[in-house]
Amino acid sequence: MAGSQDMFDAIVMADERFHGEGYREGYEEGSSLGVMEGRQHGTLHGAKIGSEQKDESLRIIDWDDPEIPL
Protein backbone atom coordinates (compact mmCIF):
# COMPACT_ATOMS: atom_id res chain seq x y z
CA MET A 1 0.00 0.00 0.00
CA ALA A 2 2.92 2.34 0.60
CA GLY A 3 3.90 2.09 -3.07
CA SER A 4 0.43 3.09 -4.26
CA GLN A 5 0.31 5.98 -1.79
CA ASP A 6 3.62 7.30 -3.13
CA MET A 7 2.20 7.12 -6.65
CA PHE A 8 -0.83 9.20 -5.65
CA ASP A 9 1.36 11.67 -3.75
CA ALA A 10 3.38 12.19 -6.93
CA ILE A 11 0.20 12.88 -8.89
CA VAL A 12 -1.27 15.20 -6.26
CA MET A 13 2.00 17.07 -5.72
CA ALA A 14 2.71 17.40 -9.47
CA ASP A 15 0.69 20.62 -9.66
CA GLU A 16 2.73 22.20 -6.88
CA ARG A 17 5.99 20.98 -8.39
CA PHE A 18 5.11 22.29 -11.88
CA HIS A 19 4.02 25.60 -10.38
CA GLY A 20 7.37 25.97 -8.61
CA GLU A 21 9.37 25.00 -11.68
CA GLY A 22 7.36 27.35 -13.90
CA TYR A 23 7.83 30.19 -11.45
CA ARG A 24 11.60 29.71 -11.33
CA GLU A 25 11.91 29.44 -15.12
CA GLY A 26 9.70 32.50 -15.63
CA TYR A 27 11.63 34.50 -13.05
CA GLU A 28 14.98 33.68 -14.65
CA GLU A 29 13.72 34.49 -18.16
CA GLY A 30 12.07 37.70 -16.99
CA SER A 31 15.20 38.80 -15.18
CA SER A 32 17.40 38.34 -18.23
CA LEU A 33 14.88 40.04 -20.54
CA GLY A 34 14.51 42.88 -18.03
CA VAL A 35 18.26 43.47 -18.05
CA MET A 36 18.34 43.54 -21.85
CA GLU A 37 15.34 45.88 -22.02
CA GLY A 38 16.89 48.11 -19.37
CA ARG A 39 20.14 48.38 -21.30
CA GLN A 40 18.28 49.24 -24.48
CA HIS A 41 16.22 51.91 -22.71
CA GLY A 42 19.34 53.32 -21.06
CA THR A 43 21.17 53.50 -24.36
CA LEU A 44 18.32 55.32 -26.10
CA HIS A 45 17.68 57.67 -23.18
CA GLY A 46 21.40 58.38 -22.80
CA ALA A 47 21.71 59.18 -26.50
CA LYS A 48 18.77 61.58 -26.24
CA ILE A 49 20.25 63.38 -23.25
CA GLY A 50 23.68 63.49 -24.90
CA SER A 51 22.16 65.04 -28.01
CA GLU A 52 20.38 67.66 -25.91
CA GLN A 53 23.58 68.50 -24.03
CA LYS A 54 25.48 68.77 -27.29
CA ASP A 55 22.92 71.26 -28.62
CA GLU A 56 23.10 73.28 -25.40
CA SER A 57 26.90 73.34 -25.41
CA LEU A 58 26.94 74.55 -29.01
CA ARG A 59 24.62 77.40 -28.03
CA ILE A 60 26.91 78.33 -25.15
CA ILE A 61 29.94 78.34 -27.43
CA ASP A 62 28.07 80.56 -29.89
CA TRP A 63 27.23 83.06 -27.14
CA ASP A 64 30.89 83.26 -26.09
CA ASP A 65 32.14 83.75 -29.64
CA PRO A 66 33.54 87.34 -29.88
CA GLU A 67 32.88 87.45 -33.63
CA ILE A 68 29.12 87.16 -33.13
CA PRO A 69 27.65 90.65 -32.62
CA LEU A 70 25.12 90.79 -29.82
Automatic annotation (TrEMBL):
Under the heading Pfam families, the entry gives: Yae1_N
Name of the protein described by the UniProt record: LTO1 maturation factor of ABCE1
What the record says about family reads: Belongs to the LTO1 family.
Q: Fetch the PANTHER family from UniProt.
A: GEO13458P1, ORAL CANCER OVEREXPRESSED 1
Which lineage?
Eukaryota, Metazoa, Chordata, Craniata, Vertebrata
Annotated InterPro entries:
Essential_protein_Yae1_N, LTO1_adapter
Q: Which residues form the Essential protein Yae1 N-terminal domain?
A: 22-52
